[in-house]
């Protein structure tokens, strides 16, 4: 198999537009979760009134104004999630200094961008318009804006990339699947470079209502939104919906070396599994996540003791965080692993940016890449008291403050409704 490395990164997140701004604010302990109750009367009556929203404002301030980031024609044709993806992709391509012009290079560059829900706004608004006014009220752009694969399609059209053009939609595992699958396209020789990631923009009353009805969302901290996402904390009570996009440039190792590209890390392993258990709840023993991490390390050819950091999926739900915590300990402790739980460095960045659904796996993968590249563990915000029960939550969860740490190997976990799991193993390029 051909080796795959990361040569570029880009993001649009609740901490700002741009990966450097996002990373610095994350490391500084900032939170991008705000109140939604004043957005509209529909938001005000929901049991969960918090969300992690991409900040609106001027480009010079690292905030979102579509007219400053997206061409006029594209703004009309593209749904918000696709706009986010295009901006993140542009940053990643510039970061990688990959701007192919020859036919050979265009044919060997592909795009793989996924989304968990896509453009819910378009589906909702068009359904209402059709109900009131019929056929003529349906925009000819309705279907192209709705389709999840159009994020990848618009990126490939903008840059002329003629390699694999693909999309995934696997709930909250989407972003991780996009990176892992794209890496396999490179490993098998279908492409030399892949623009890969996830995008989401569905902070809509209908989406929040749906998740709230399934009792998945945080509802206890509506008056203190910055405290509402509390991974691994004993007072955690549900996740906070978020939006944004994250894109990485994956590249075949020899191709990257030949052009003198900066290499952030190697995507050394990719593991996938299924819980085969329940539509929305994980197995309490975390066996599905255990399998995905185990497969990722097997693919990478690395023992459990080599893992120095795990960016956990941990969404701030009572059952999910506990199951993942158990899975990590079951895999990384023992004969071929670490000696004691306090040696395990685990954090969940969802305390700062909420849960980006289909984009979660890709932005959290970038946080792992930067942890390796810069030697910093991002913090788990709002972690006051690990537990419940406390004796099971005895690892280093990087509470509230970032920690300096040399990281050679890191795992990024993503799990989704339907029991779908993925783990990405990144390693320092040697």
Features:
Peroxisomal Thiolase, Chain A, domain 1; 2 domains; two-stranded antiparallel ribbon; 11-stranded mixed β-sheet; alpha/beta; 18% strand; 16 helices; 35% helix; 430 residues
Write down the overall geometry.
globular
Number of helices, counting only DSSP H or I runs of 4 residues or more: 16
Structural class category = alpha/beta
Radius of gyration: 20 Å
In whole angstroms, the N-to-C terminal distance is 17 Å
- What about the largest sheet? 11 strands, mixed
Write down the domain tally: 2
CATH superfamily of the largest domain: Thiolase/Chalcone synthase
CATH topology of the largest domain: Peroxisomal Thiolase, Chain A, domain 1
Uncertain spans, ≥5 residues at pLDDT below 50?
Answer: none
Average predicted confidence as pLDDT: 97
Structure at a glance:
This protein is α/β, with parallel strands linked by helices and 430 residues long. The chain has 16 helices and 15 strands. The protein is globular and about 65 Å long.
